[in-house]
Amino acid sequence: MTEKTLPLLRTIEWKNNKVVMIDQTKLPVELVRVEYSDYLDVANAIKTLIIRGAPAIGVAGAFGLALASLQSKSSTKEQLISDLEIAKKILFETRPTAVNLAWGLEQIMMVAKKGNTVSEIQNLIINTAKQMAEDDIKINMTMGKYGSELFSNNDTIMTHCNAGSLATVAYGTALGVIRATKESGKNIKVIATETRPVQQGSRLTAFELKHDGFDVSLIPDTAVGYSMANKLVNKVVVGADRVLRTGHVYNKIGTYQVALMAKQHGIPFYVAAPLSTFDMKSSPQEVIIEQRKGTEVTQIGDRKTAPDGINVINPAFDMTPPELISGIITEAGVAKPPFEESIKKLFEAKK
Question: Active site annotated at which positions (predicted)?
């Protein structure tokens, strides 16, 4: 079976007690899959963006703990849980802002503590992690259906960063909404921002939308205002790495600017995120924004694009305040302002 006949890009899966994932650093030049049998390699893959996107790294963390359970030399439940706690800490520290990672790790630890023997715990963890991967696809498809109702025939939809199949197990959050809109029979076009400095928009979003036969145009990040002012865009939808109970959204750096410009031009700005991306406890002051290495900004590949020794500020994420957001699309429905009230209702409905 060739890659082109696959219905969806599958970002990560569990095969023969190994974790198999697409190496996203090689895209769009090559579609390469890597295999890991050591949880430290999974941790490194998350850290170095071989796998990225909040839902995908939530599942990667779960699979990482599944590998850690198989690697453990422990003969008792207590020893195994101790080894898993060490692995959990290493995996969590790879990307502190994306709440799905912490969520995925916590889910696995809860399940692990229910088992009695080492082999029972290992089986519980592996089966739970595999189920989380399947659930991610179903959740995204449900979210896509809710989101598709917000979009009209002949809309041109802007998206920032990559919230597609490559950011999830398959299907996608923001791109899942775009997929579902097209699947509902509506004619749509997409504008993808390049998303500097790591180019997730040009390398990943443009790649997978083109791969899946969408009408997609790529723009530099600096052309967002131009596109909106010239009425090239009707709606915006982005993913999220963390959503607070107040409706504050943390997403790839540059999202805040896109939301501000959308507000200025009267364009609806939507966020698509599963309930596992919601952080119902933290306040905006408590959220740690990951700072990434300066070379992401000062060079492209091996080519230098800035003078040696220059200071670099390179935050991975920014915060979009709730007053700029038209709605937050989840698998339980769409939260609308005032968000604190509507988000709470979605969680109550989910129970």
Answer: 241
